[in-house]
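Open question from group meeting: does this chain pack into something compact, or does most of it stay loose? Before anyone orders reagents, we agreed to write out a predicted structure and look at it together. Recording both the input and the output here so the notebook holds the full record.
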Amino acid sequence: MPGIDELMRQVQAKESAARARVEGLRAELERITAELAAEEGSLAGWTTTREHVMLLRSEQNGAGPLESAEGVVGEVVGVLSVDDQAVVEALTRAGQGMRAKELCEAVGLVVDHRRVETLRARLKRLVKRSVLVENAGLFDLAEGVRTADPD
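Structure tokens returned:
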């Protein structure tokens, strides 16, 4: 049976190894975070480009500047992604404002902290785009935003 000095050396060795792994993981996390930020910027650019192209296509097809090819109309809405459309449709069905957690359920997402917070960030972006309004944590459709008639 090892003595207390030997046991302490083993503990210190394990602690040092764990510290080195933690530092390595932190460095990797920083690298991945920077890469993620760059990719998110690229994605935002491509999304904006797609939205503008769809809006131009809609205008060329005689739909007018406020009507999108994706079936959502409203003030400066443009074209919404499939996920954003799901949010608009869920709020239309509800007929009232909803919290991020309720919207997670309504659009069929697993309700856990990460997904609720991810959806909340999406909802806040839609607020900035004037698609939604937020009041006391409740998200609702902005005035003039609705899903298109099925006809």
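Observations to bring back to the group:
The helical segments are 4-60, 82-94, 100-106, 113-128.
The beta strands are 72-73, 132-135, 138-141, 146-147.
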